[in-house]
Design goal:
The complex is a heterodimer of chains A (109) and B (292). Helices cover 28% and strands 33% of the residues of chain A. By secondary structure, chain A is an alpha/beta fold. Chain A has one domain: Ribosomal Protein S5, domain 2. In chain A, the strands form two sheets. Chain A has a five-stranded mixed sheet with strand order 1-5-7-4-3, covered by helices on one side. Chain A has a two-stranded parallel sheet with strand order 2-6. In chain A, helix 1 runs parallel beside helix 2. The relative contact order of chain A is 0.29. Chain B has 292 residues and is an alpha/beta fold. Chain B has a domain of 185 residues: 2-enoyl-CoA Hydratase, Chain A, domain 1 (Alpha-Beta Complex), CATH 3.90.226.10. Chain B is built from twelve helices and seven strands. A seven-stranded mixed sheet of chain B has the order 1-2-3-4-5-6-7, sandwiched between helices. In chain B, strand 5, helix 5 and strand 6 form a beta-alpha-beta unit. In chain B, helix 3 runs parallel beside helix 4 and helix 4 packs parallel to helix 5. Chain B is globular. Classes of the chains: A alpha/beta (109), B alpha/beta (292). Chains A and B meet through strand 4 and strand 7 of A and loops of B.
């Protein structure tokens, strides 16, 4: 396993009371993304545990794209990856943000 | 009309339980991951592949666990086992109306060796203890990975089992049998053979499965609510009744070589058509047979 850490500054702060969300499953070629509010830190931190070794530069590019699409602050994102492709990683990150920022009352609509 | 088979464990919980009633215990943010998988340098999951908590189902206060088949085939490790055992103890402490287990598992997580074996045996003991305390434990099986190994035994210890045709229930899985005994004994790639041996329809006709439903999450919800309300207790008389049924079944079908032989002996004139029967037709056929 390889551990990668990313940190992005200057994003828009998420409401502190937003409940954590998890999307995806740790299955072959897939990943899970856990996103939670982290009020004590204005940055967006992303922790990746991946089974695919040596792809740090590609992860960096995928994360740069993600932060450009969703400049969030005060959030902690954690990923357990079982060899997902960059497109799947981007899709799950978008899903996680969509779930995280969706108004609570419409969640079951 | 959401498919139970296609859904993740979290999607199944959202569809089976009353809206907004589920409160998760040890959620992913607790990060209670498997120390064994970490030591082996393998991927972990934040919930270790099982989601547990309290909820209501059709108004009934229940404790519920859902296994995620996508993570290591739903295999039970030490942490996952401890979560399920703790949930069953919680059901007793809170005098729950029942426990619902959404099972999707190949059995013991072999990477965790003895810890996984002990975890499954503890689950079996906890299911029996919960039932002995008067709390029904009902299982649902309808996922891609079926329910096999020691968790097949655990399912058999439950008050009732709800399955879809797509579900499979057994002890050694088809590929395990083929590996151990050869392809002449069991061809695991013969899907029709697999389903007429361990599939939902066969399990229903044999009486292993109590309620057969279509592959829809809402159908599982209705059946689980019914099973919780209808479940009988676990006492000596119930165990003896079960043993008598098993003995009669072995007596009637012990010489059969294939599911079709059993269905013919049950009175199906064209047993080769049984796999194509709609769920309601098959349910009516079993009821007619029981009435006769």
């Amino acid at each position: 396993m390889e551990k990668l850490r990313f940190r992005f500054e200057g994003g828009n702060a998420a409401p502190a009371a937003t409940p954590a969300r998890i999307v995806g499953v740790v299955a072959s070629g897939n990943l899970e993304v856990l996103i939670e509010a982290l009020p004590g830190d204005a940055a967006c931190t992303i922790e990746v545990d991946t089974a695919a070794l040596g792809f740090g530069a590609i992860w960096q590019a995928v994360m740069n794209d993600f932060f450009a699409r969703h400049p969030l602050g005060g959030v902690r994102i954690a990923i357990n990856d079982a060899g997902a492709t960059p497109a799947i990683v981007s899709l799950r990150l978008d899903q996680a943000v969509e779930e995280f920022t969706r108004p609570r009352e419409s969640h079951h609509g | 009309m959401a498919s139970y088979y296609e859904a993740t464990a979290r999607e199944r919980l959202a569809g089976v339980l009353d809206p907004d009633s589920f409160v998760e215990v040890l959620p992913p943010t607790a990060r209670l991951v498997s120390p064994h998988l970490q030591a082996l340098d393998l991927p972990t999951a934040f919930d270790d592949g099982v989601i547990i908590g309290g909820a209501t189902l059709d108004g009934l206060p229940v404790q519920v666990a859902a296994q995620e088949g996508g993570f290591m085939g739903g295999a039970v490790g030490e942490v996952q086992g401890a979560k399920i055992v703790g949930l069953l103890a919680r059901a007793q402490a809170r005098d729950a109306a029942g426990v619902v287990l959404l099972l999707e598992t190949g059995g013991v997580r072999l990477q965790e060796a003895n810890a996984g074996l002990i975890a499954v045996s503890e689950i079996i003991r906890a299911i029996c203890a919960t039932r002995a305390a008067g709390i029904p434990v009902v299982a649902a099986i309808g996922g891609q990975y079926g329910c096999f190994g020691g968790m097949g035994i655990a399912a058999g210890c439950c008050s009732a089992i709800v399955m879809s045709e797509e579900g499979r229930l057994g002890l050694s899985g088809p590929e395990v049998i083929e590996t151990a005994r050869g392809v002449d004994e069991f061809d695991s790639r013969d899907r029709a053979l697999v389903w007429r041996t361990v599939g939902g329809k066969h399990r229903f006709l044999m009486g292993d499965c109590d309620i057969l439903v279509d592959d829809r999450i809402d159908a599982f919800r209705v059946a689980l609510a019914h099973a919780l309300r209808a479940a009988g207790g676990l006492d000596l008389a119930a165990v003896e009744r079960e043993h008598a049924l098993l003995a009669a079944r072995l007596d009637a079908y012990g010489q059969c070589r294939d599911g079709e032989d059993i269905w013919r002996a049950m009175g199906f004139d064209t047993p080769q058509d049984v796999p194509m029967l709609a769920t309601d037709v098959l349910v009516a056929a079993r009821q007619a047979r029981q009435a006769a």
